[in-house]
Design goal:
It is built from 16 helices and 7 strands. The chain is mostly helical. Helix 6 packs across helix 7 and helix 11 packs across helix 12.
Length: 451
């Protein structure tokens, strides 16, 4: 069976802003090697389209150091869909399509447009022509066949049997004489070698969640070995300092939190910081070293009990009643700790909320959502706690902070009122003007004229 791409030229996709892009990998090929690189990319394309696509591919090679075949990338985000939404003759063929799209999703991939899942260079395959062909092969794959992939290049379907692998993949198998960085870079540009890392080219990447448990165990056992922490203890009162918030290293702050420690993780890439903060792997973001250690000291002083401080294997319980009583003890203990935390740590929670609002006032903010998703407590109680500590309601505090920020922005007389409104969290300019006048006694323009 021959699988080919359509002879209809797909429209060139638009690129979503703020999605990370891979850097230029460097173009160092000789003229002969360049010709081979173009032939390797064009072999997937019907001949009648070569004249149109050859210059396009050459431009990619010259400016990106690789031929990605952007034109063949599907438009938008490649979020994994439910398995039954994919075409296929067997469940394995559908499942692999789910895994591939998951690896290339905007929320997961490091450089989605360049097929890089993680590790800076770990790719699902080399280019988007291969992606489309692999998907087409998987749609027709049966339980009596095996798809063989060589550095992203689908060699074809081979007769096998139901208990054989449905897909066999190799990546970057370099001959020993050429197994060096220089020759690898040439092979990469020519489109004959794909570095799949491990779970990128193997289509099974799941992000920091795949390593957080191992990182948690490593931190906890390191503390027990080096800090004299007992076997039933955790890292409360200790500080873990490290760096990196990438695909694997992004698990560090959550693993530290699980083990009871406070942590400071340094990262130079703001896009990775934003991703991990948005996904909940990081609690705070600051570029101030003093503030970082102040927050860490507060966390260490809190020494809040965590659920992982007591672990039992289920086999120690001989009867269901014993397990039920054990679980009830844990629930009662958590409730007691929560009450003590609210009594003794209420100010810490409010400081946390104030810091969060300061960092996110330009977005939609809901105390109910904070209560339910961040602090896991009753929203009505948190509302009363906030008003008692701050002296005003949460919504009033947010409005006043936004107007305060707006007054600062209005000093720049080149900024339009609607731009100021948008930057402080108002989608409706009329609403912004109304709120501003209510608090300041004048409109934004009147305020600006008084400066």
């Amino acid at each position: 069976m021959e699988i080919t791409l359509s002879n209809t030229l797909p429209p060139y996709p638009t690129f979503v802003e703020d999605i990370r892009r891979a850097p230029d990998r460097g173009f160092t090929l000789s003229p002969a090697q360049t010709a081979t690189a173009l032939k390797n990319a064009l072999r997937y394309i019907p001949k009648e389209l070569h004249e149109t696509l050859a210059p396009e591919f050459m431009e990619e090679l010259r400016t990106r150091g690789r031929i990605y075949g952007y034109r063949y990338r599907p438009q938008g985000d490649l979020k994994a869909k439910p398995i039954d939404a994919y075409k296929g003759n067997c469940i394995e063929g559908k499942a692999f399509q789910v895994m591939i799209d998951n690896n290339l999703c905007f929320d997961i991939a490091l450089y989605p447009y360049e097929l890089v899942t993680y590790g800076e260079t770990g790719q699902v395959c080399q280019n988007w022509m291969q992606y489309r062909l692999i998907k087409q092969y998987l749609e027709v794959l049966t339980q009596d066949q095996t798809l063989v992939i060589e550095s992203g290049h689908p060699l074809g379907l081979f007769r096998s049997k139901p208990d054989a692998p449905r897909v066999i993949i190799t990546n970057a198998m370099m001959v020993g004489l050429y197994d060096n960085q220089k020759d690898w870079h040439v092979a990469m540009q020519m489109g004959v070698a794909n570095y799949g890392q491990m779970t990128a080219g193997g289509w099974m990447y799941i992000g920091p969640q795949g390593i957080v448990h191992g990182t948690f165990n490593t931190l906890l056992n390191a503390g027990r070995m080096k800090l004299g922490i007992p076997q039933n203890g955790d890292l409360r009162g200790h500080l873990f300092i490290s760096s990196g918030l990438g695909g694997m290293s992004g698990a560090q702050p959550k693993a530290a939190e699980m083990s009871g420690a406070a942590s400071i993780i340094a990262e130079v890439d703001m896009s990775r910081i934003g991703t991990r903060h948005r996904q909940g792997w990081v609690g705070y973001v600051t570029d101030s070293i003093p503030e970082a250690f102040l927050l860490a000291n507060e966390a260490m002083d809190c020494k809040v009990e965590i659920m992982f401080s007591r672990r039992y294997d289920l086999y120690v319980f001989k009867h269901p009643e014993e397990l039920e009583e054990y679980l009830m003890d844990i629930i009662r203990e958590i409730c007691d700790q929560e009450q003590n935390s609210l009594k003794n740590g209420g100010n810490a929670i409010i400081r946390d909320i104030l810091h969060y609002v300061e960092q996110n006032y330009q977005y939609d903010l809901s105390l109910q959502e904070l209560a339910e998703k961040k602090y896991f407590m009753n929203s009505s109680y948190l509302s009363r706690l906030f008003k008692s500590a701050v002296g005003q309601t949460f919504s009033r505090y947010v409005i006043e902070l936004r107007i305060k920020k707006a007054r600062e922005l209005l000093k720049d007389k080149t900024m339009k009122t609607n731009d100021v409104a948008a930057q402080v969290g108002y989608n409706n300019t009329s609403h912004f003007i109304q709120s501003f006048k209510k608090l300041c006694g004048c409109t934004p323009e009147e305020y600006r004229n008084q400066l």
